[in-house]
Amino acid sequence: MWKAANNTENxxxxxxEVSYPDRLKERAIITKHLTPQLLVEEFKKIDIKGDMxxxxxxxxxxxVDEIKREICGLKIDNLILLEEGDEFxx
Length: 90
Description:
The chain is α/β, with parallel strands linked by helices. It has one domain. Helices cover about 35% and strands about 15% of the residues. The protein is built from four helices and three strands. It has a three-stranded parallel sheet, with no helix packed on it. The longest helix is centred in the last third of the chain and has 11 residues. It is globular, with a radius of gyration of 13 Å.
């Protein structure tokens, strides 16, 4: 997936899920989901352009507040946390 993204000219945005907080990293790995820190590891595989928007979705309802705190703590520009009912145009 990242190879295709890296080869896509004018890529303006990414949508990527973060389903679990960092404390549940093993569960995330087993279920093939991400935590905020696993997201950081994925970012090492892609050439993120300065103005590229990164939409985060699929936060498990039980962990929403915890995941939001952890994502905000990453201090990564251009991250947008999507919430239930959010809409946008492509």
